Amino acid sequence: MGNTGDVRTTGLVLAAGAGTRLGKGPKALLPYRGRPLVESVAGALLDGGCREVVVVLGAGAPDVIAAAELGRYRTVVNQEWQSGMGSSLLQGNASAAPEDHLLVALVDQPGVTTTTVQRLLAAHRPGRITAAAYYGSAAAAEGAGGRLRRGHPLVIDVALRSDVAQTVTGDAGARGFLGDHPELVDEVDCSDLCTGEDIDTPAQLGLLG
Q: In terms of pTM, does the model score above 0.85?
């Protein structure tokens, strides 16, 4: 796994935020199955088929490095983390091997598993963006079909990395490029694996189990 044709994939974990809305410090350090959450997300990317994982830290980076076991991954620190997630995506993109696809994950998604990553890598097609998509918790609870909602992780093809980077601003990440080029995006249903929710509010802390 991890190869699409002859191209390999670098995993990127965006873990620089301060978790201000949640009020519990950097989300990278949220406890999950006895360890900091960042370990679980980064491990899913590496074990799911990425040849390397870059973890972009920012707020509380020394504390995260001290508390989490990140020896299997490459860590970089975004000094501009307060400008928004976009700066972390740009730094991660610049840090990844230029010949690789990029699989981008958020640190506050405990539902991301090795199966999620394997599914996305297997589905990826050259010249495209492959995104996990979910029906979401509300539709699942109601047993409704609903509509798939695009989320993370997502695979940015090596041929598109530069184009995506040119559109990144503030906290939007790749959202602008995805919105402008829906014809390039393939959505992969991962609803059977998790709801795709981020941990943004105290009510969502239940996602940590």
A: yes
